[in-house]
Design brief:
The complex is a heterodimer. Chain A has helices at residues 2-7, 10-36, 41-53, 56-81, 89-107, 113-142, 146-166, 199-216, 218-228, 230-235, 240-267, 278-288, 293-317, 324-338, and strands at 191-193, 196-197. By secondary structure, chain A is mainly α. Chain B has helices at 2-28, 36-54, 57-81, 86-105, 130-134, 139-157, 159-169, 171-176, 181-207, 219-229, 234-256, 263-285, and strands at residues 119-120, 136-137. In chain B, α1 (2-28) packs antiparallel against α11, α2 runs parallel beside α4 (86-105) and α3 runs antiparallel to α9. Classes of the chains: A mainly alpha, B mainly alpha.
C-alpha cells in the first residue's frame, strides 16, 4: 500500500480532493434547490440513497443503467478524439434498439439464442453506426456542422421509433399504451444475477478495447492528430475524411450496442419514450471525465446511481424524477469550470 | 389552407424568432449558447408561474427575461470566466434548465394561466389574408416583428454592436484598442439569455397556454441551427423560424385533413426541412461565420 501511495503525486492528491470538493458542492447546491421548492433535502437524499442501496436488486439497477450510459459516453469520446461533437447518442441508442427488434422479427427465433443475439447486436451497431455516419457524411459533403446535425437526428430517430411502435410493429395485444411485441427468451440477454444481464460484462471489455484502440493503434493516433491539429493531419497525408467518418460511425455503433443491450436486456419491448434522455446523460458522462474511456466507467456509474436515485425521489418524495437532471448538470458544470486548478488559457 | 399555414407559421415561429435572434447576437460575439433551449424552458415556466401568481402575463414575460438571462450568465461564468468548453457547458445548462423546470414546474402542470390574448389591430386586421397572418396576434408576436430589424440595427449601426462583432471576429484587435472582448461577450450572452426567456414566455403564455415538462421540445436547438442557416444575420432568422414553424403548421393541416400518412412521419417534416436546408446552405455560409467561433470547435473560447 505504501508503495502505491508514494506513487501518487501531490498534484494527483490535490486534484482528487478538488473533485471531491466539486462533488460535495454540487450536492449542497441541489439540496438548496430542493429547499427552495419546499422539499426536505435530507429526506430527499435519504430516498435517493435507499433506492440505490436498498438491496442487491437496487444496486443491480444501477449496474444495468451504467451500460447504456457508458456505451453512449464512448459514442461521444471516440469522435471527440477526432475533434467531432456527437450529441446524437439519444438517436443512436434508439437506432440500436430498432435494429435489434428488426432482426428479432426477421429471424423469429429460427436460430439458436447466441447466434440470434450476436446478429441483433451486429445489426444494431450497423444501423446506429450508419445513422451517425450520416452526420459525418453531411459534414464532409455539405459542410454541415455535426454537433447540430447529430442533435437534430435525435428527433428523427424518436419519430421513427414512434412510427414503428404505433404502426408496423405495434403489438396487437397492446391496448392503451402501444408497444412492440416483447423480446422472447431466445432474443433476450442472459442474466448474470437478478436483473443484471451479461451486457454489464460486455460493456467493460468493450470500453477497454476502445481505450486500447485509441491509444495503441495507428488509427487511434491519426484520430488524435486530426483532433489536435487538422492541418498537420492533412499535411501528413492522412485520409481525414475517412477518419472522421470512421470515428462517428464507430461512436454510433457503440451507442447502438448500448441500445440493443438495454432493450434486449432490460426494457423487454420497444415503446415511446424508451431510453429518453440516456444519450444526453451519456454526453455528460463523457465530459465529466474529459473524454477518458476508462474513467467514463466511473462517471457513467455515478450518473446511473443518480438517475436510479431519482426514482426514489419520485416514489418517496413525490418529486419529478427529472429533478435529478439538476444534480447531474451541476456536477458537470462544476467539473468543467472548477475541476482543474487552473483556468484553461487559450493559446 | 395556405392562410392557416401562414398564421400557424407566424404564431408558432415567434418563440424561435426571439431565441434565434438572441443566439445570433451571442454567436456574433464568439460565444455559442446551446443552453438556449434551457433558457427557453426556464423562461416558459417562469412566465407561466408568475402569470398564475400575479394574474399578469406581462409580469410573467418580464420575469422570464430575467430568469432566461440568469441562466445565460451561468454559461458566461463557465465559458468566459473559466474557459470551459462551450458545447458541453451549453448542454449542461440545458440539462439544468430541464431538471429545474421539472422540479419547480410540477405543481403548475394542470393549472391554467391568464394568457396573452390576441390584439387584432383595427383596420389592418380586416385586410384579406394579410390581416389574419400579420395583424391578429398576441403582443409578444408583434414585438417579435420589430426584434429582428432592431437586432440588425444594434449589431451593424451601434458602438456596442460593433464591439460585439469585433469580439467575434478579431478579439485581439479589440485588445489593442484597450477594449475587453469579454465585456462584449457578457453583454451579447445576456441578450441571448433574455430573449430566449422571452421566447419561452411566448410559447407558454401565448402559444400553447399550458405548462408541461420539457415543453420547449427542441425549439431552442432549432434556433441554434437556424443561426447558421441565417448566416449570422438576425433578419434571415425570421425566415428560418417561419420556415420551420410553417412546416409544423403544414403538417398539422395534413393531419387535420385526415391524411393517412402516419403522424410520426409528418412530424419529421420540420426537422428534415431544417437538416436539408442547413446542409444545402452550409458551404455557402462557411465564410459568414464569425472567425473566433471556429475556436469554439477547438474546445474553448479564444481570448486575448
Amino acid at each position: 500500500v505504501s508503495v502505491v501511495l508514494s506513487e501518487i503525486s501531490p498534484q494527483r492528491w490535490r486534484s482528487s480532493t478538488r473533485l471531491i470538493g466539486v462533488f460535495v458542492a454540487s450536492l449542497v447546491v441541489f439540496a438548496l434547490l430542493l429547499v427552495a421548492n419546499g422539499a426536505d433535502p435530507i429526506a430527499g437524499y435519504r430516498a435517493m440513497w435507499s433506492s440505490i442501496t436498498r438491496d442487491s436488486s437496487a444496486f443491480g439497477d444501477v449496474l444495468i443503467r451504467t451500460v447504456p450510459y457508458l456505451l453512449g459516453a464512448l459514442a461521444v469520446i471516440v469522435p471527440a478524439r477526432a475533434g467531432l461533437f456527437n450529441i446524437g447518442g439519444e438517436g443512436q441508442l434508439l437506432l440500436g434498439a430498432i435494429g435489434a427488434m428488426w432482426i428479432a422479427n426477421v429471424l423469429d427465433q429460427s436460430l439458436p439464442r447466441g447466434v440470434t443475439l450476436l446478429l441483433m447486436a451486429f445489426v444494431a451497431m450497423l444501423l446506429a453506426g450508419a445513422w451517425a455516419a450520416l452526420a459525418a457524411a453531411l459534414r464532409l459533403v455539405a459542410g454541415t456542422n455535426e454537433a447540430i446535425s447529430t442533435l437534430l437526428l435525435n428527433y428523427l430517430a424518436t419519430l421513427l421509433l414512434g412510427w414503428l411502435v404505433f404502426g408496423p410493429w405495434k403489438d396487437p395485444a397492446s391496448t392503451g399504451f402501444p408497444r412492440t411485441r416483447p423480446f422472447e427468451t431466445g432474443e433476450s440477454m442472459p442474466m448474470l444475477f437478478g436483473r443484471v444481464h451479461i451486457g454489464v460484462a460486455i460493456a467493460v471489455p468493450v470500453t477497454v478495447l476502445v481505450w486500447a484502440a485509441l491509444r495503441y493503434t495507428a488509427w487511434g493516433f491519426q484520430l488524435t492528430v486530426l483532433g489536435q491539429n487538422p492541418e498537420a493531419a492533412r499535411r501528413a497525408g492522412f485520409r481525414t475524411g475517412a477518419l472522421s467518418l470512421s470515428a462517428l460511425a464507430l461512436g454510433g455503433a457503440l451507442a447502438g450496442l448500448g441500445g440493443m443491450l438495454q432493450t434486449s436486456g432490460v426494457e423487454s419491448n420497444l415503446r415511446p419514450g424508451i431510453m429518453s434522455g440516456y444519450g444526453f446523460t451519456a454526453v455528460l458522462a463523457a465530459w465529466m471525465v474529459r473524454q477518458s474511456p476508462i474513467k467514463a466507467m466511473g462517471s457513467a456509474f455515478l450518473l446511473a446511481a443518480i438517475a436510479i436515485g431519482g426514482n426514489g425521489l419520485k416514489i418517496r418524495e413525490g418529486l419529478s424524477a427529472a429533478s435529478v437532471n439538476i444534480l447531474m448538470a451541476i456536477i458537470l458544470l462544476a467539473v468543467l469550470g472548477w475541476g482543474t486548478r487552473q483556468k484553461k488559457e487559450a493559446s | 389552407v395556405i392562410e392557416a399555414i401562414a398564421v400557424g407559421a407566424v404564431r408558432g415561429g415567434t418563440s424561435v424568432v426571439f431565441a434565434g435572434v438572441g443566439e445570433t447576437i451571442a454567436e456574433r460575439s464568439g460565444v455559442i449558447y446551446l443552453g438556449c433551449e434551457g433558457s427557453m424552458l426556464v423562461g416558459a415556466l417562469t412566465a407561466y408561474a408568475v402569470g398564475i401568481e400575479t394574474g399578469s402575463p406581462w409580469l410573467g414575460a418580464l420575469a422570464a427575461v430575467v430568469t432566461g438571462l440568469l441562466l445565460a450568465l451561468l454559461h458566461g461564468l463557465l465559458v468566459i470566466h473559466r474557459g470551459a468548453n462551450q458545447i458541453a457547458t451549453g448542454l449542461a445548462i440545458t440539462f439544468l434548465g430541464l431538471g429545474a423546470t421539472a422540479l419547480f414546474g410540477q405543481s403548475y402542470v394542470s393549472q391554467g394561466v391568464q394568457p396573452f390574448e390576441p390584439w387584432a389591430i383595427p383596420g389592418l386586421s380586416q385586410i384579406p389574408f394579410l390581416g389574419n397572418v400579420l395583424f391578429d396576434h398576441d403582443p409578444l408576436t408583434y414585438l417579435s416583428f420589430v426584434v429582428a430589424p432592431a437586432a440588425w440595427w444594434f449589431l451593424f449601426r451601434t458602438g456596442p454592436g460593433l464591439r460585439i462583432r469585433a469580439a467575434g471576429e478579431r478579439p485581439e484587435v479589440l485588445g489593442t484598442m484597450g477594449v475587453e472582448a469579454t465585456r462584449s461577450r457578457w453583454l451579447a450572452l445576456a441578450i441571448a439569455g433574455g430573449m430566449s426567456g422571452l421566447g419561452g414566455a411566448q410559447l407558454a403564455t401565448a402559444f400553447t397556454r399550458t405548462w408541461s415538462e420539457n415543453m420547449v421540445a427542441g425549439r431552442g436547438f432549432i434556433a441554434v441551427a437556424l443561426v447558421i442557416f441565417a448566416a449570422w444575420n438576425p433578419i434571415q432568422i425570421v425566415a428560418g423560424a417561419y420556415l420551420f414553424s410553417g412546416a409544423v403548421a403544414f403538417e398539422l393541416q395534413l393531419q387535420a385533413r385526415g391524411s393517412d400518412i402516419s403522424i410520426f412521419l409528418l412530424d419529421a417534416i420540420p426537422y428534415l426541412v431544417v437538416i436539408v436546408v442547413l446542409s444545402l446552405l452550409s458551404r455557402a455560409r462557411r465564410h459568414a461565420a464569425p472567425e473566433s467561433l471556429a475556436a469554439v470547435f477547438q474546445h474553448q473560447v479564444s481570448t486575448t
